[in-house]
């Protein structure tokens, strides 16, 4: 009896042996569909629709400004405090939404995960893209306010703002992959992430200046504080949007670019660790869901 001809399987990929986040680039069409779906369904059935992207940050700014600026008097200690406050809020909001949504992305898409094979990294990355789209209206408001305040940034400061966005997207993606994969098995990971997001808001110089922290902490602990990628991103946004609207006497952190370079390294390490943990656990996703 003759042996059957061997079948060429070189064009097929065994599930679970892909290239991780790099496979997302091969599924760009599906990524666009997921992002489009997330954007269209976010305010589905809402009377205000996309207006909520403006109303929510405006309400958040108003509350913080009244409490921290008026009641606690920080508007007298920080020049152009409204611009300072809002330029920090938009950065933290981007991190909170991207990281929080990415953590829940696998669980929220359990139907697709259990039925078909596709790079699971698509889901957290799509949620990070969706958060970035929702960040754009807030950035538009910030730019409009800065222009009204006489904003004239340099190219270096604008490059710093772009770097800040990259830092936030990288760290949010890495942490989203890490906690998103753990959350499939241990749902209380979402509660831990909520605590992290709460700390991210209050441990970054958004409601206060970095000098207040510097005056209270020993030098080595202050250096660790400044190495937080979210803190570095906030200060880059302050440098790009707030500082050009001041008289020029406002203080900025020393070695901000070195701090930002360290933040990029930390964000990349978080992305690599998140990807490794994600790949280690994704084989159990369908079973645990």
Automatic annotation (TrEMBL):
<feature type="transmembrane region" description="Helical">
    <location>
        <begin position="192"/>
        <end position="213"/>
    </location>
</feature>
<feature type="transmembrane region" description="Helical">
    <location>
        <begin position="84"/>
        <end position="107"/>
    </location>
</feature>
<keyword id="KW-0813">Transport</keyword>
<protein>
    <recommendedName>
        <fullName>Transport permease protein</fullName>
    </recommendedName>
</protein>
<feature type="transmembrane region" description="Helical">
    <location>
        <begin position="158"/>
        <end position="180"/>
    </location>
</feature>
<keyword id="KW-1133">Transmembrane helix</keyword>
<keyword id="KW-0997">Cell inner membrane</keyword>
<feature type="transmembrane region" description="Helical">
    <location>
        <begin position="256"/>
        <end position="278"/>
    </location>
</feature>
<keyword id="KW-1003">Cell membrane</keyword>
<keyword id="KW-0812">Transmembrane</keyword>
<feature type="transmembrane region" description="Helical">
    <location>
        <begin position="128"/>
        <end position="152"/>
    </location>
</feature>
<dbReference type="InterPro" id="IPR047817">
    <property type="entry name" value="ABC2_TM_bact-type"/>
</dbReference>
<keyword id="KW-0472">Membrane</keyword>
<feature type="domain" description="ABC transmembrane type-2">
    <location>
        <begin position="48"/>
        <end position="281"/>
    </location>
</feature>
<comment type="similarity">
    <text>Belongs to the ABC-2 integral membrane protein family.</text>
</comment>
<dbReference type="InterPro" id="IPR013525">
    <property type="entry name" value="ABC2_TM"/>
</dbReference>
<dbReference type="Pfam" id="PF01061">
    <property type="entry name" value="ABC2_membrane"/>
</dbReference>
